[in-house]
Amino acid sequence: MRRTDFHGGVAVITGAASGIGRGLAIHAGSLGMRVALADVSDAELAEVARYVAEAGGTPEVHHVDVRDYDQVDALAKTVFARWGQVDVLFNNAGIQVHGLSWEVPADLWRRVVDVNLMGVFHGVRAFIPRMIASGHHSHVVNTSSIAALGIFPFSTAYGATKHGNLALTEALALEIEATGIDVVASAVIPSAVDTAIFEHAIAVDTDGHGHEDNLAKRKIIGETGITPAAAAATIFEGASQGLLFIHTHPEDSREFWAERAEKVSTGIVDVRA
């Protein structure tokens, strides 16, 4: 796999207004990239655009709800019409909800699925055909989670969508290999990154398991989380190398994956006899 130099290229980032998305945007700016910033938080997006420009990049702001395929498709159409290529698409938008699975309202569960999983598919569906048509070497980087390697209670919707996100990315990589298109697929697997995702998360209760889980997650990232800037540097480096899996905390990934693999393998019983 050849190494990609993103300097001066084009980046598209969903969920760019905060957290890892903000870190990716500013890092892209430092590489002199043209950066399409997509989010539903207009005020925060404008602030990020200023940071990107100050870092040396060329930002463009786009109000995009990734749950709506037509909006994502319009974003892709606009970016390719303006800049003619996309070097890297970060399908990064994501939301979190805490609570017992049977207490999460159906519409809230659907919202998590639509942002965290369907939003990634919408990016893939809107951008990859245009990437192929452009003839330009391109990357698609999907933000998954350490929650895709382990099983965590009280945030089931988030975990389910991140497992799906990871499976989507792995299958996409196999399809790319089978068809020989000039696109690279990567899955980002962040562990503790000091973002506001848990501050923005919804707990379906005020004093139960959901609320307690939210507080516990806030405490962990507040005490041990790396900065979004550090995460972004790791992600860009991994993408430049064409890695399928990009881990912000490799040891955490190994630990959770080993625990998960042990549980699954222990439960394999031959019932055919």
Polypeptide structure, described:
With 273 residues, this protein is of the alpha/beta class. The protein has one domain: Rossmann fold, CATH 3.40.50. The chain is built from nine helices and nine strands. It has helices at residues 19-30, 42-55, 69-83, 106-134, 156-179, 197-200, 209-224, 228-240, 250-266, and strands at 10-14, 34-39, 58-63, 88-91, 97-98, 138-143, 183-189, 202-203, 245-247. The strands form two sheets. It has a seven-stranded parallel β-sheet, with helices on both faces. Strands 5-8 form a two-stranded parallel ribbon. Helix 3 runs parallel beside helix 4. The longest helix is centred in the middle third of the chain and has 29 residues, at 106-134. The radius of gyration is 18 Å and the shape is globular. 45% of the residues are buried.
Q: What's the total number of strands?
A: 9
Head-to-tail CA distance between termini = 46 Å
Strand order of the largest sheet: 3-2-1-4-6-7-9
Indicate the percent of residues in helices.
40-55%
Strand content: 15-25%
The whole-angstrom Rg is 18 Å
Quaternary status? single chain
Any idea of the CATH class?
Alpha Beta
Low-confidence stretches: none
Number of helices: 9
| Outline | globular
CATH-defined fold name: Rossmann fold
CATH homology group:
NAD(P)-binding Rossmann-like Domain
The sequence of SSEs as H and E is EHEHEHEEHEHEHEHHEH
How many discrete structural domains? 1
Question: What characterizes the major β-sheet?
Answer: 7 strands, parallel
Residue-averaged pLDDT, rounded? 95
